[in-house]
Fold each of these.
Amino acid sequence: MLFPETKYLDFKFPQPQYLGAKYIHRGWIAQFIPENANTILDAFSGSQSIAYMFKQLGKRVITNDFLNFNNVIGKALIENPGYTLDNEDIETLYSPNNSPEEFNLISSLFSGLFFIDEDADFADSFRSNVHRLKNPYKQALALTIMCRSMTRKVTMGHFAHTQALVYASDPNRVKRNRSLARPLKDLFSELLPQYNAAVFNNNKENISFNENVLDLLPKVDGVDLVYFDPPYCNSHADYQSFYHLLETYVEYWKDKDFINGTKRYNPKRYSGFDKNSEVILNFQDMFEKSRHIPTWILSYNDRSYPDIDTILNLIKPFRDVNIEYKTYYAGRGGKGSVAGSNEILLICNPK
Ligand SMILES: C[S@@+](CC[C@H](N)C(=O)[O-])C[C@H]1O[C@@H](n2cnc3c(N)ncnc32)[C@H](O)[C@@H]1O
């Protein structure tokens, strides 16, 4: 990158807590983004931490995730040209539940499971007021911060276990992680300034989608580079089991069953990248559908399925590939971040 755009680099993406987030690798990934790539698609954007880095580089960003709570972050921090939440908005969001018969999903499903009654009621009343904010970017920002607050309240930051309240009443755990015992409203209020400060306009028409990547690819044009960060099929690939509560909160499902101890919604959305039996065919389809995008960058980890040789064989009919390794030694890199494991980027250019 010869003449990098630097004026947006002072904005700070609020630190995510999301399995497989590449937040800590964003500087390393940025090195491989060519200056002349003007429009970039983040096809599996998750927490949006890499889409945000693209926005900071001054790119036009198209971002996408098949889960809507991630798309909502994309609306709030990538597509949003500058709307933040002011005191009047907060007063609206913190006002009493304006329709308790309609807005009681979180207390009816998750009270006594992930939250104490007061927090579940607050989540519902807040949700009942979101649509009273007239601007869609403000709505998205409100939901984004609330989702982040909810993950801070539960042990391990996900919802695939049923120990949240047990841990929240264990003094030793609370000593290590005070958020577990703090009211949801306090966590929201604390996060708000960070999120408001992260909103900026890079003067590009950025857009966030909520589609399966295989449906989206044929529809996007004018993309110079696509970044693929698919789930690691071997571990933690089922994002809907880990984050079902956030999707339920954003969607406020009326037409799902809620199953198992964690009350995950059912049926799930179809990914195609979370089961070993399907993933190879879907990678093949994804590469086929990306022919019209000149440069592809794929994040990969050497503990993933399928193995690197299989992936390379799938890409080679379409692109020449350079492999870049980043070895990390501390176990802090999100999914698969085991000491000595490699974070890999496959840089794929036209033949
Ligand atoms: C490894 S994570 C991406 C992490 C992201 N780069 C970040 O920094 O936070 C993979 C993402 O792919 C999404 N996903 C899974 N299947 C998908 C599909 N078929 N289409 C689009 N997104 C999908 C998951 O919801 C998850 O957020």
Note: The CA atoms of residues 60 and 205 lie 6 Å apart.
Amino acid sequence: MKAKIDLHMHSHYSDGELSPEKLVKECKKLGLEIISLTDHETVWGVEEAIKAGKKSGISVIPGIEFSCNFQEQEQHLLGYFIDGFGQLATGYKNPELLEFLKEVGRKRRERFLKMIERLKNLGFFIEYSEVKKYARGSLTRPHLARAIIKNKKNARKLKELRIDTKFESEFFKKYLTEGKGAYQDWERPSASEVIKLLKKSGGIAVWAHPKWKCGGYKETMTKALELRELGLGGMEVFYTRHTQDQTKELFQIAKELGLAVTAGSDFHSSNFSQYNKIFAWQDFGIEEDFLWLKEKSSVS
Ligand SMILES: [Zn+2]
């Protein structure tokens, strides 16, 4: 028997829309059996997700997603079982992890203050206090977009700019993505730091959506090898935006390097233009890999 899994989802504690409890309910409707909540740089939703999972009979793996620097490029790493395998009492409350997240949160805040300044210079009305109202855990760029759109003082300007305010992603794409007017980069932790921390917290590090910034086989293989050197344990082979060919290639690389294969939708909200669906992966021998992943994390 194979389990239905989706190991990459966001809640309203980062840039998702649903509460962890609602998210788990949605997963239940889809017949999922094992899921993970992987909010950006926060574990605030984990406990709620685990509790809701217990009620619904779904296994919830404590998870997180980190943005990090790897070879002067932004890459994302997912952390699973950060509570130490099977024990729900410690880990995601691990003091070192929490300390690290606090520091990352401070850097994120600095970045957002700068982006708010840029937005103001571009003639938009926005205050940090408003943005904070929308962010329960991690501050994220969709929160900035929301604060702009919800502020009536911006209505005229947005209309003039022909920005459809029904979708926050419209504003996001035009102003908040890399290279756009209000974008500000930030000092991300290194992949090596993040992997070490995840392992110390009893967890396993998985390379999220490896094809996000990788072209062909050679480049992906080289990066995977180097990440494995740093202690990487798995690769998110099955992913919403990977093509079938990319999936096959990644599967082969993961097998060759002895890395666990995972699957994730990156679900944020049904209102997102992308990442608007939860998946239920159950084919391709995922369960065997998943069991292997658990085994691996318990010995690290
Ligand atoms: Zn994600």
Note: The CA atoms of residues 113 and 128 lie 7 Å apart.
Amino acid sequence: MSSISIKNIRKEFPSKSFSKNKIIALDNVSFDVGEGEIFGLLGPNGAGKTTLIKILLGITYPTEGEAKLFDKDIKDVRSKKFVGYLPENHKFPGYMKGEQVLHYFGMLSGMKNKDVKKKTDEFLKLVEMDKWRKTKIKKYSKGMMQRLGLAQSMLNDPKLIFLDEPTDGVDPIGRKQIRDVLLNLKSLGKTIFLNSHLLSEIELICDRVAILNQGQLIKEGSVYDITTSSNSYNFVTSEISDDVVNTLLNNFKATLNSKTNFTCIVNNLKDLNDIIDFLRTKNVLIENVSKEKNSLESMFINLIEQTKN
Ligand SMILES: Nc1ncnc2c1ncn2[C@@H]1O[C@H](COP(=O)(O)OP(=O)(O)OP(=O)(O)O)[C@@H](O)[C@H]1O
Ligand SMILES: [Mg+2]
């Protein structure tokens, strides 16, 4: 069963000026998120990421299309039972202490008093905020606020957690702590749907991603497939003689990095093996052949640039 199933979602907002043109925040977006995945929703500012999360949570309604959480339509209030949410730029009242915030949200979500207490203890420890539980949150740093927000989103033991920019404004050590918490939640079988501009982080923890641009889904797939989608292969070999170098450059369109390292773009596996056969007939020893990996960030920038043209 999918945790999230999104079909042909469109969202229009009325234009901000007097123009008749509507803002199309989401345009025919469809994809699924599997159970137990960490799924990243990426896209430049204004791409429609927060709007999509808000639709899935029933905070705003789609103009067209439908979506399900664990096979329950998002219009069905029971779909909320499985869900935790950390909003973008959340604000808790500054006069409350960390533990009071969790108590308040726990009671709001219908938990029993004793369960709230137990979960508050458990999650404050998990996000390493236990020693700040009695401090008023107006004294918290941004990273502490995010970690408290994360604890809040887990309080009702959700199967699916939506996190809108969970590491926004958090320093590298705090970000690592948040990543570890998310991986821990994944190991407990939770599904995490997160939205972030920090692509190096997404690359470290997400199983799959979807990329939105101007309301449209422009790419969806596993992080591995997206970052290795080029057909460029790198070879590490024993030293190559000049005549072998010439053939590689002329017949195989290679790019030479050194006498023992070159890169080739191939169309298929047969082309790749032709190069290996050629090298072996010339007694070149092959140490390593690997598909070149791009960073998620460079793939993202390329994709967004391509859609501008
Ligand atoms: N309530 C609203 N009324 C009118 N337009 C809105 C509303 N909410 C969002 N929009 C517009 O919808 C588009 C998508 O906005 P959204 O907040 O979903 O983007 P985002 O991908 O989350 O961006 P960011 O990365 O900056 O958080 C934008 O053009 C935005 O101005
Ligand atoms: Mg947003």
Note: The mean pLDDT is 91.
Amino acid sequence: MSAPATRWQVRAQRPVAYDVLKTPALFAPHNDALLAFGRREGARRFVVVDANVMRHHGAAIRDWFGQHGVEVHLVTHPGGEECKTLEACQDLVCELDTFPIHRRDDPIIAIGGGVLTDVVAFVASSYRRGVPHIKVPTTLMGYIDAALGIKAGVNFNGNKNRLGSFEPPQAVLLDPAFLPSLPRRHLLNGVCEIVKLAVIRDRALFAQLEADGAASIAACFANPAGEAILDRAIGGMLEELAPNLFEEELARKVDFGHTFSYGLETRHGERLLHGEAVLLDILVSVQIARQRGLLAGDDAARVFALVGRLGLAPDLRVLDSGTMWHSLLDRIEHRNGQQRVPMPAGIGQCVFLNDITRRELDAAVPALHARIKADHELVLEC
Ligand SMILES: NC(=O)c1ccc[n+]([C@@H]2O[C@H](COP(=O)([O-])OP(=O)(O)OC[C@H]3O[C@@H](n4cnc5c(N)ncnc54)[C@H](O)[C@@H]3O)[C@@H](O)[C@H]2O)c1
């Protein structure tokens, strides 16, 4: 008989609490929302700002820190997927070493799009084994999605987000005043993620998009209806994220549009933005749901009509079922052995599929081409 093993067990729970706070005109002189986090006496802040944000809003940001007596070290970082690298993290760590901050009460501040907040959050999760950080999203993608949760990461070895961590921020501060300087393509990129939420979990949001989406895009969401759309999208996103922050549950509604898009985005990175790839996945999924009879013809037609009405122009040329099938196989690893593909079963209703076949995908691509061509011709005739 072998001797009984000596065993010690360690158990711990890490509480997570952070505010997502909408605070318009964050860098107006009177606004001190940013001072609510970290020390005020002798405050030092390491601030990373997206290079394009710096171009449009840099003076206001710099002035704000000066007006509030905060010693600041401003670093710019270019946005764009190609800058979401380990090298970018190493550069930031080297910069951090030149500007000592208190490990607990001088939070790093990330001001930028999803690329920048993912990179900075990853640095914050590993610098001295973890320092606090605050996210200030400046793209629509960040505002309604990327900055809200706790996922951090960089692309590596040809794979998106291959290295990353779960790192709760100290706070997320939302200022819609950043959106008007965003190029239209990037605004629409974020709209694709709102469409995702509407189709898979929120019929009322879908109706809001139908009624007010186009006008809201034209107004950069600075109109009351646009604000209502963003507030609803954020609330819905947080309802999905909060009970499953660390993704113990791998069947996630918010993964709608993120199964086939992964491969498309990896393969056509120079051509497709994240939301654009998500939109293609949404349309393929709607087509599959239609083929299976999960989605009624009228509902599928409403989704296609909404995409047209919002001015989203999916680039169908990049669709190929081989890439998408391999993407699904990769997602099976990511989702621990099962497909767990969220699919619409009616607008605002979700089911999870584990039995999508290559044949279905092969059929969906030409059917989608034919559908969009027919819709287009209909519009031209009108
Ligand atoms: N962590 C998450 O949960 C999560 C969720 C969704 C997406 N993401 C990630 O987000 C990334 C995409 O984010 P993104 O779409 O914000 O891209 P991005 O950060 O590259 O920003 C897009 C472009 O807009 C510019 N920009 C940013 N703010 C601006 C402003 N206010 N005015 C003018 N220009 C501005 C940037 O310089 C860049 O050129 C992807 O890497 C994706 O994986 C992460």
Note: Strands lie at 19-22, 44-50, 71-77, 108-112, 133-137, 151-156, 159-166, 171-174, 341-344, 350-353.
